[in-house]
Amino acid sequence: MYRPPSLVIFDCDGVLVDSEIIAAAVEADLLTAAGYPITGEEISQLYSGLTFSDIMLRIEEKAAIPFQASLIDQAEELVDRKPKSSVRAIEGAHEAVASVTGKRCICSNSRTERLDAMLTRTRLMPFFSDRIFSSLDTPSKKPKPAPDVFLYAAEAMGADPARTFVIEDSVHGIAGAKAAKMRVIGFTGASHTYPGHADALTEAGAETVIRRWADFRGIIEALMEWSEDA
Fold first, then answer.
1. Distance (Å, rounded) from C-alpha 120 to C-alpha 101?
2. φ and ψ at 217, to 5 degrees?
3. How confident is the model over 74-94, as a mean pLDDT?
4. Does the reported pTM lie above 0.90?
5. If we measure between CA atoms, which residue out of 98, 97, 80 comes closest to residue 15?
6. Spatial separation of the C-alpha atoms in residues 11 and 77, rounded to whole Å
7. b or e along 126-145 (b: 16 or more beta carbons within 10 Å of the residue's beta carbon)?
């Protein structure tokens, strides 16, 4: 008999709303102007799922280019402004979220204010209300790929991490979910997807990868039945 997961955790950017491509373009323009030429596509492929602060740190270590801390505030302001006018829900996201009959929540590296604005604009907010967790609001404030936000959400929701599914579009997000001992489904249905995206998510630890939300419910049921039969 099918038993639903203890909890389903959705990432937001690039999973529910098509915002990763917007943020990547903004961040690429700022980094290029600061002396490190990079495209939005490269940001998406190499650094998707990280905060802009962590992206800057990794590039500084690799290229020995010191960035001004003020770039972080610039990026936050620009990324906040653009989604308010252009962000959209990924096709099928409303139906996929509604299909989760048990506990569900969002875990994201984005700030709470940005999450609220995006979810309100895309009419996804009613599905989650107060079940939205930003890594910046956890006690440790550690962003993905740290597992902290996932574990914090599971504790708050009274869920068993081993029976929790996480839907993620980034290698770094998957790393955090796996470190939290949760099961992961990769998602490649947003505009920032790239050749080899699904393979990268599988190599990072996703049990399977979907590119259409229409496949979500069937995959969850199949994976739950497989684990119970194993």
1. 21
2. -60, -45
3. 83
4. no
5. 97
6. 21
7. ebbeebbbbbeebeeebbbb
